[in-house]
């Protein structure tokens, strides 16, 4: 039996948009597990998708690439992707990889 290293769950859905929590490790192995659902949410017609990352314990370049691509999918669908409560180490990695220009950070 294997233990999931990543969890994606809907926290709230209202007229402002959808709030989703991503917890665990977002890396080369787990990005592929959550990408189909995140892409589905990106095209679901919500005005905003707020991705709460406070429970993210690790994120490598594959995870950051997923976030960047998700931002593009959201823009193409007319949805804003907003990242909130991003752990400092993840913010630093996003900046080092020059992905910050494609992502929007908000305070919850």
Structure description:
The protein is of the alpha/beta class and 108 residues long. The chain contains three helices and six strands; from the N terminus they run E-E-H-E-E-H-E-H-E. It has helices at 28-42, 61-76, 88-96; strands at 6-14, 17-26, 48-52, 56-59, 80-84, 104-106. Strands 1, 2, 3, 4, 5 and 6 form a six-stranded mixed β-sheet that branches. Helix 1 runs parallel beside helix 2 (61-76). It starts with 5 loop residues before the first strand and ends with a strand. The mean pLDDT is 89.
What is this structure, in a nutshell?
The protein is α/β, with parallel strands linked by helices and 108 residues long. 37% of the residues lie in helices and 33% in strands.
Q: How many angstroms does the end-to-end distance come to?
A: 36 Å
Biggest beta sheet attributes: 6 strands, mixed
Q: How much beta, percentage-wise? A: 25-35%
The averaged pLDDT comes out at 89
Q: List low-pLDDT spans.
A: none
Helix content estimate:
25-40%
Radius of gyration of CA atoms, rounded to a whole number: 13 Å
> Secondary-structure element order, as H and E?
EEHEEHEHE
Outline: globular
Number of strands: 6
What is the SS-derived class? Answer: alpha/beta
